[in-house]
Design goal:
By secondary structure, this protein is an alpha+beta fold. It has a single domain, classed as Alpha-Beta Plaits (2-Layer Sandwich). The chain contains four helices and four strands; from the N terminus they run βαβααβαβ. The chain has helices at residues 13-21, 40-43, 48-52, 70-81, and strands at 2-8, 30-36, 56-65, 89-95. It has a four-stranded antiparallel sheet with strand order 2-3-1-4, covered by helices on one side. The longest helix is centred in the middle third of the chain and has 12 residues, at 70-81. The protein starts with a strand and ends in a 19-residue tail after the last strand.
Length: 114
């Protein structure tokens, strides 16, 4: 089991939602508000406007999914959120040891024993 996380532009959320819902057996997504900036070395020359808007609004999305679903989810995030501009965001995966339901403490199906 993996968690796929991504930082994306807020105006791409509707497009991302459609792309994720199109994936068979998609498990669901959690969305967080976030702010951040790109490392200055990655940008090169910055304008005054860029300096004044250093922290831009972003969204962080999080999806817990079986290993086999990681690539289709990652591909959907990239395809639906890319504009070709600096600041489109990043996507990464994190290994999940176990998942337990808060209601009763049971292990959620598909999660490895922990």
């Amino acid at each position: 089991m993996k968690e796929i996380r991504a930082i994306v532009r807020p105006h791409r959320l509707d497009r991302l939602r459609e792309a994720l819902r199109a994936i068979p057996n998609f498990p669901g997504v959690t969305v967080f508000r976030a702010e951040g900036f790109t490392a200055p070395a990655a940008i090169g020359h910055r304008t005054v406007r860029q300096e004044l808007t250093d922290f831009s609004s972003k969204l962080m999305v999080s999806v817990l999914a079986d290993d086999a679903m990681v690539e289709p989810i990652r591909a959907a995030i990239i395809a639906s959120c890319a504009t070709g501009q600096i600041g489109d965001g990043i996507v990464w995966t994190v290994a999940i040891d176990d998942i337990h339901r808060i209601r009763d403490g049971s292990v959620i199906d598909g999660a490895p024993p922990g």
